[in-house]
Amino acid sequence: MTISEKVAYLKGLADGMELDKEDSKESKLIGKIIDILEDVGLSVEDLESEVEDLGDALDVLSEDVEDLETLVYDDWEDDEDDDDVLPFPTELGDDFFEVECPSCGEDIVIDESALDAGEVACPNCGDKFALGFDMDDLTDDE
Hints:
The protein is of the alpha+beta class. The protein contains four helices and five strands; from the N terminus they run ααβββαββα. The protein has a three-stranded antiparallel β-sheet.
């Protein structure tokens, strides 16, 4: 039951009790309260309708944004050349680092001498690859 239906029920009860026909202060007060409730109920229904419309508009915009993301990011990912992206080592501590082999995806643990050389041979697949890093990024603990 909506608010307007509940207010209409109250109005019907008041009419059935013949409150409008009496000139008492209480009946006038109850009549005014019911009128205000009726206005509030209509306002709430209008707001609910507007919220529903806004929700529908938001759904349409969300779908449009998804379509744009698909177009932009799929094209961007297709244009991206994975060979240009060098693996970046992660510091493990005690002068050891971990890096992922771009060929087979295996995690490799290397030492600082391999970092200095700038190139690593994967023990899993045998491919050699360069490391993409800046020593300042690895030692910038301050």
